[in-house]
Amino acid sequence: MPRSSYIIKREKKLVEKSSIADRPEYTGLVAVLNKYDIVNDKVLENDDTIDEQTRFTIKNTWDALVVNAVGEWQFYNHAEKKSKCMLDNADIHTEYYIKNQINGNQLVVGSECIKHFGFENGFIDGVSSKSFVAQQQREQRKIKRREDMMKLYGNIERQIGNYFSQIADYPVALNSQMLQTANIKINALKTYYDNYINGKENDAALYPGLKQDIDQYLNGAVSPWVKRQESELFACTLEDIRHLEAGGHADIIKQIRDNNGLIDEDTVKYIYHAAFIKKHLQTFKDKLSAYFRVINQVPSGLSVGFECDAIVGIDYIISPHNFLEMFGGILFGKPVTMKFKEYYPKCSFVDSNSNIWELIESLHSFFKKSGYEFLYDEEKYQYWLVGQGKYNDRITRNMLVDHLIPRIAQNQSVESIESLFFNKLTNWTMMDGMSSANAKMIRDELKSLRELRNEAIGI
Question: Quick check: 82 and 26 in contact, CB under 8 A?
């Protein structure tokens, strides 16, 4: 049912005693509250002393002011005592004491008013006034115990949080035993503190001994171990741990911790971030020299060139994840067992203009003693494969780098390549039988492309 008044008595008193009444912008409102217990349309119509701003506040923002005022008060005690409620002047049998946390004002209210203005931890349906009081008293005891501990030992909650952060932020991953022991000791301190705050433990003097036990373990056992571990080449670093966490590899982190905090051939393939690759790049270069002419780290992964004279200058990109999956084991003395055809599909050609003439040069070099020529049309972005008395203008980049280049890299003969690649091409156009005009046009175009090719590759 809608209220007939903008302001009622219990709300008036609550706002009057709140810090809102001390603000200069509400001077007019305070004057109205001092004058009336109830404010409705009749009051606003008949009282010419009420200014327009105050009228607007009463009609439009009063409810919000009440909510703000309520938030300033905190219940702190009660007493079985008959008196009058200071909010609505009703007779009460139990006094509930509330205090304004901003200006220190205090009010005595009854069981009804404390329900209506139940505050942050107020009544809810089905909760008796006695239950509410008991709950509030428990909260007050907790606050008091927390304050007592803080006076004795500082901010213990922050200290416990710092301990957990410390064991999570060591530069290398703790092994399972150390991590478990550290967690047990810190949790013992946390449990003791929680029990003390909740009244289940009364001896505050136990805290220093529990804290000292943690400090001695972290400083005397963990820190020296961490320093030694940092010198280990395959110690799992904090950066490695965060990379694994980001990838959702909690099982791999546990496996590493169980391995005394060291990465091995089973876990290395999961740690494919840039810092790890950079740390071990020279080892990869040394141990994979038989496979790769060059291995360089680039923003998109690793740029590799296969150790094959026929394709020198053609580089490929391989992702760090695929690279470590295939070759990570060599860091731990494991032989490379994969063959070229198995790891070649993991690479992608560096598709940029800077590679086009390197590709043409490599193809020209490999096929120069055969009857085939490779040309490139810069205007049409097409590769031409030219043979005796025939030509083909539908050689794509993918056909070259996915099918032809791998065969060259595997040192297959021209005859083998012709059988496996050239003979499968379906768009050969024979020069024989063409009109002399068409044949001349094609020959002129091929001549122009040869000149362009020769100029680009320095022939």
Answer: no
Residues ≥6 apart with Cβ < 8 Å to 297: 274, 277, 278, 281, 303
Amino acid at 296: N
To 10 degrees, what angle do helices 436-457 and 353-367 make? 110
Q: What are phi and psi of 90, to 5 degrees?
A: -80, 155
Give pLDDT tens digits for 258-306.
Answer: 999 999 999 999 999 999 999 999 999 999 888 888 898 988 788 887 7
142 Cα distance to chain centroid: 36
pLDDT per residue over 224-246, tens digit each? 999 999 999 999 999 999 999 99
d(CA 407, CA 404) in angstroms, rounded, equals: 5
H-only helix segments in 231-371: 238-246, 250-258, 274-287, 320-327, 340-343, 353-367
Q: How many CA atoms lie within 13 A of 180 on its CB side?
A: 7
Q: What single-letter amino acid sits at 366? A: F
Rounded distance between C-alpha atoms, residue 236 and residue 253, angstroms: 9
250-258 helix and 238-246 helix, angle to the nearest 10 degrees: 150
Collapse the DSSP code of 237 into the 3-class scheme (helix H, G, I; strand E, B; otherwise coil) and give the result.
Answer: strand
Q: Which helix (H) or strand (E) holds 305?
A: strand 301-306
Distance of CA 34 to CAs 16, 73, 99, Å?
8, 21, 21
Strand arrangement, sheet containing 91-100: 73-84, 91-100, 106-109
**Whole-Å CA distances, 253 to 223, 280, 291:** 20, 20, 31
Element (H, E) at 142: helix 129-153
